[in-house]
TrEMBL record:
GO terms for molecular function: ATP binding; protein serine/threonine kinase activity. ATP binds at residue 53. This is non-specific serine/threonine protein kinase. Residues 24-278 form the Protein kinase domain. It catalyses: L-threonyl-[protein] + ATP = O-phospho-L-threonyl-[protein] + ADP + H(+); L-seryl-[protein] + ATP = O-phospho-L-seryl-[protein] + ADP + H(+). The keyword Nucleotide-binding applies. Belongs to the protein kinase superfamily. CAMK Ser/Thr protein kinase family. SNF1 subfamily. InterPro entries: Kinase-like_dom_sf, NAF/FISL_domain, NAF_dom, Prot_kinase_dom, Protein_kinase_ATP_BS, Ser/Thr_kinase_AS. Residues 307-331 form the NAF domain. PROSITE patterns: NAF, PROTEIN_KINASE_ATP, PROTEIN_KINASE_DOM, PROTEIN_KINASE_ST.
Length: 444
């Protein structure tokens, strides 16, 4: 596996040529992209096969994609469905971020369909699983935005698994008019409203892509195809396609509703499930497990005084730990002036934190300015000395990020606010960096 001699650079992880974090034996390369490579690997302890996506931090920071990585982690950790690839664990070094994922043995759907078109029954089987996964995502406020056969994997049982949420969006990104505006997707699968650049409904563009996929499964070729992008986009915008003559009337009608150029009248997931062609043999009551949040692989560390006390998720620890240096998943500090950066987890409410910071600021003769949960502290001459951001981690915990100039935070604030820091029992007994170096896993 390609690494930049990280084990010799003082990194907390221990990486050899074929062993990652003393836990995963790295195998063959499965695929690669502009910013990442995907490898087959084996869990040394359990013998389980996994897929590991190794992402170059330097490349994603340089190209401004760090927010996408943060979003992808956040999205995948909350999706638990039989037809969506599971994210098992996130690991990191100084130069790489590693997604440890469920290994899907059969490869991607593109490889299968490139051999020959599918029968109508097999097309329906795959499409039913795709819609089940997409409907689940939409119900959880997630829009994939890059659905295509290359991102649909097939396991040894013949079940479909949706993967690659790198371009996904969530409801918090939706503007006041209820639309998204970022242009993204793969040209042949992109919806006409994205081409119009007037805003789009995330669920409706996923449905369009599903329509293109169903067309490909049934025909073996794309509904919109042209040598030039301008010609391709013209056909998509106008909805110019021909359904193969072997297509049954029921499937023909469903495809026409999926590839409706008007997003308002385009079919919805609920309407697809009621469609006669689609519903044949469809199991509406798919059972899947929504796991409880887990804490570190070791220890209990629960908090809260009621019966529904929660646990700090391992992904939350890894995202907010300085020891593993994933600060880029929050914000790109590289573009800001040189300063000391610090962060801690607290059980105090943001209101109490602001109150305590305000008290110390008054004693130190500093001017405090607040915007939402962000605070800036300025000296008598108006010079910025401290910037503080608060992020709600769970109902009971928050993360406080500090950017301090001239050592102001450590010298003048830290002694007065040390009681704010949350110390879970499991972390107190062992250094957090030591636990992280072994890798943190979340039961899937």
């Amino acid at each position: 596996m390609e690494e930049e001699s990280e084990s010799s650079s003082g990194d907390i992880s221990q990486i050899t040529e074929h062993i990652l974090f003393e836990k995963y034996e790295i195998g063959r390369l499965l695929g690669c992209g502009a910013f990442a490579k995907v490898y087959h690997a084996r869990n040394i302890q359990t013998g389980e096969s996994v897929a590991i996506k190794a992402i170059s931090k330097q490349k994603i920071v340089k190209n401004g994609f760090m927010p996408n990585i943060k979003r992808e982690i956040s999205i995948m950790r909350q999706l638990h469905h039989p037809y969506i690839v599971k994210l098992l664990e996130v690991l990191a070094t100084k130069t790489k971020i590693y997604f440890v994922m469920e290994f899907v043995k059969g490869g991607d759907l593109f490889s299968e369909i490139s051999k020959c078109r599918f029968s109508e029954d097999l097309s329906r089987r795959y499409f039913q699983r795709l819609i089940s996964a997409v409907g689940y995502c939409h119900s959880h406020g997630v829009f994939h935005r890059d659905l295509k056969p290359e991102n649909l994997l097939v396991d040894e049982k013949g079940d479909l698994k949706v993967s690659d949420f790198g371009l996904s969006a969530v409801t918090s990104q939706v503007q006041k008019d209820g639309l998204l505006y970022t242009s993204c997707g793969t040209p042949a699968y992109v919806a006409p409203e994205i081409l119009a650049r007037k805003g789009y409904n995330g669920a409706k563009i996923d449905i369009w892509s599903c329509g293109v996929i169903l067309f490909v499964l049934n025909s073996g070729y794309l509904p919109f195809n042209c040598r030039s992008f301008s010609g391709l986009y013209r056909k998509i915008y106008r909805g110019e396609f021909r359904v193969p003559k072997w297509t049954s009337p029921g499937l023909r009608q469903l495809i026409s509703r999926l590839l409706d150029t008007n997003p308002i009248t385009r079919i919805t997931v609920d309407e697809i499930i009621q469609d006669p062609w689609f519903s044949k043999g469809y199991n509406k009551e798919i059972k899947f497990h929504e796991p409880e949040n887990t804490f570190l692989a070791k220890g209990k560390g629960h908090y809260g005084n009621n019966d529904s006390s929660k646990f700090l998720n391992a992904f939350d620890i890894i995202s907010f730990s300085r020891g593993i240096d994933l600060s880029g998943l929050f914000k790109d500090f590289d573009n800001l002036p040189a300063a000391e950066c610090d962060r801690f987890i607290t059980a105090e409410t943001p209101v109490n934190i602001i109150k305590k910071v305000s008290e110390v600021a008054a004693k130190e003769n500093l001017t405090m300015t607040r915007k939402d949960w962000n605070i800036t502290l300025e000296g008598p001459n108006g010079k910025l000395l401290v910037g503080i951001e608060m992020h709600q981690l769970t109902e009971s915990l928050a993360v406080v990020e500090i950017r301090s100039y001239e050592g102001v935070w450590k010298k003048r604030f830290q002694p007065h606010l040390s009681t704010l820091v949350y110390h879970p029992e499991a972390v107190e007994t062992r250094p957090l960096s030591g636990i992280l170096s072994e890798g943190l896993s979340v039961s899937g």
